[in-house]
Write a structure and sequence with these properties.
alpha+beta; 3-stranded mixed β-sheet; globular
Length: 202
């Protein structure tokens, strides 16, 4: 499975299983994932998003139009600001998953999958930089791990199932009031074992 979890404060989590490679391409960009994360939490205008992202407003309209054209965000309110109408956008979903069929079509889908994962990790790294700049980061319970090990197929399946259950339990429910914003970037994959060929000295 592959989840892209955006967070948000809706009473019920709204899920989209992406079946179209073009939709995956549309979100395989760190800036767009950041936009989706903000819009999953509250409705915002392009001007407000620009302030949050440190981007000129005009640079965001293309991204917003693309996300809207693929049905990932929607305009939920329009306000009069002087002589202008200001649109407020909201994400229609709080998390995405990729249809497993998307991952079986060879090199193109491999590239799309890699780009999507890379964008998600880039967004999380940017959130980490922000968190590090705030006082008390190392006083809180944070955990990081980069690990490689060997497992049997059944043991690996057991691990992935437990990991999936934990994510479902703690992330796919209503946000708790107060507390902290919690970020997790998780990537677990297996590859066939390769025997190391080492030439022995005679």
């Amino acid at each position: 499975w592959c989840y892209i979890f955006l967070g948000g404060c809706k009473l019920e989590r709204t899920h989209l299983q992406i079946k179209d490679p073009e939709v995956v391409k549309a979100i395989a960009d760190p800036k767009r994932i950041a936009i989706l994360r903000f819009l999953a939490k509250k409705k915002l205008s392009a001007r407000q998003l620009g302030k949050l992202l440190g981007e000129p407003t005009r640079n965001l309209y293309y991204h917003l139009n693309e996300l809207e054209s693929y049905g990932l965000i929607e305009v939920t309110e329009v306000k009069q600001k002087g002589n202008l109408l200001e649109k407020y956008y909201e994400s229609k979903y709080t998390y995405f998953s990729l249809d497993p069929e998307l991952l079986t079509f060879g090199d193109e889908c491999n590239s799309i999958f890699y780009s999507t994962i890379s964008s998600g990790f880039q967004t999380t790294l940017e959130a980490l930089q922000t968190a590090l700049a705030k006082p008390g980061f190392f006083d809180r319970n944070n955990v990081g791990a980069i690990l490689t090990t060997q497992m049997t197929e059944s043991r690996y399946k057991e691990f992935v199932d437990k990991m999936s259950d934990l994510i479902n339990e703690y992330f796919h429910n209503k946000d708790e009031e107060g507390g902290f914003e919690v970020n997790i970037a998780s990537l677990c994959f297996s590859t066939p074992q390769t025997d190391l060929q080492i030439d022995e000295e005679e």
